[in-house]
Amino acid sequence: MNCREILSEIFGLKYFLSPLLSRGSASTQGISRYKLFPCGHLLAENIKKEWVRSCVLRREEPAFLYSQQGNCESETDLQDMFLTTKELSNGKVPFIVANIAREIASQTDSEMKTDLDWRPYFSPSQFTSLRASLFVTPSRGQQLFYHWQSQRKYWWRKFVTPSRGQQLFYHWQSQRKYWWRKIKDGRKKTVPYLIESRLNLEVAALMFLCQGLTLRGDRKVLRLHRRLAPYKVAFLNSTDDELKSLAVYLYENLRQSHIYCLFTPLDSSSKSPGSIESQLSANDKLGVPYSILIRDTALQDGLISIRNRDTTLEEKVHISKVNDYIESLLKNY
Predict the structure, then answer these.
(1) Where is the Anticodon-binding domain (predicted)?
(2) Positive or negative CA dihedral for 65, 70, 76, 80?
(3) Over the stretch 198-245, which tens digit does the pLDDT of each residue have?
(4) Strand pairing of 290-293 and 233-235?
(5) What rounded mean pLDDT belongs to the chain?
(6) Which residues of the chain are modeled with pLDDT < 50?
(7) Which fold has domain 231-332?
(8) Domain boundaries, the chain
(9) What is the pLDDT of residue 229?
(10) Helix locations, the chain, DSSP H
(11) What is the rounded distance in angstroms from the CA atom of residue 275 to the CA atom of residue 284?
């Protein structure tokens, strides 16, 4: 299946990609390119959070995060960040300068490694560049380069679908010298080395969608990692008022715990929510990892069912333990 066919399949899931029609008469118009839609932007935002967690919050080296609107390609921009960060880290290396910037698309994107030729169909004029720059002494440059390269590959593989996880890396690393200011390496002063890792956020979101799209029988399933999925939990609708009230109560508790849920209670004028199977199928297409089913017996024994998207198995959980159970699922990778 080529890139255009995969994009067409993802567009069939709705909410992640929006088509851009080619110009021409009504009879010749067709889908020429795609852009991210609301759920696609939520996916991209979750990728950015995990990137910051990995490159800034959980690093052994001191790491400092910068954010800017313009392109950060000039020597002056990186030099200013280097000198400021060097002062914050008391002049010691290694340290990391992490930068999030909105940039204009350029030829640089073609240098990134991917097994899908996405450029003819998905080429945003601006993109979000996530760049982590590790400054080190020359004596440790080669060692840390291979170590960090291994860590970034592991980060990517951690989130992709296992069956296709070996096909794609979307980080690239480089190693080079910079002349701005000498640093101490033992008793002598020397020129620092820069090891750089860069990620195009919008295209990374597209690649995760391409990797996650699978088939279960004749049903499409979007297997997004639970840390990246736009919605972590979805509630199945019911026409029973008491069950609906219980679902609203659980939904509000989960939202207070900062767990992003999908639930749209039906009113009397709404059409039937459909069968359980049809609702679960819709949740699978949205990549929701966990669906909550509240059956009639929940009003007597207080137990609800939490269904896993990947295994399709259901587990009974008491109403009082739902928050703790969901939090424990999302906490672990």
Answers:
(1) 233-328
(2) negative
(3) 888 888 888 888 888 888 888 889 999 999 999 999 999 887 889 989
(4) parallel
(5) 78
(6) 25-30, 107-111, 162-172, 179
(7) Rossmann fold (3.40.50)
(8) 3-215, 231-332
(9) 94
(10) 3-13, 38-52, 75-88, 138-159, 201-212, 241-256, 276-285, 298-301, 322-331
(11) 14
Task: Report which of 138, 298, 312, 145 is spatially closest to residue 217, judged by C-alpha positions.
Answer: 312
What secondary structure, in 3-state letters, does 33-82 show?
A: EEEECHHHHHHHHHHHHHHHHHHHHCCCCCEEEEEECCCCCCHHHHHHHH
State both tokens at 296. Answer: 């009639």
Paired tokens of 60: 């052994």
Residue with tokens 């990186």: 78
Q: Please write the tens of the pLDDT for every residue from 260-307.
A: 999 876 655 556 667 889 899 999 999 999 999 999 899 899 999 999
Phi, psi dihedral angles at 244 (to 5 degrees): -65, -40
284 neighbors 219 (Cβ within 8 angstroms): yes
Residue 318 pairs in a beta bridge with 303
| Secondary structure of residue 265 in the 3-state scheme | coil
Q: What pLDDT, on the 0 to 100 scale, is given for residue 73?
A: 53
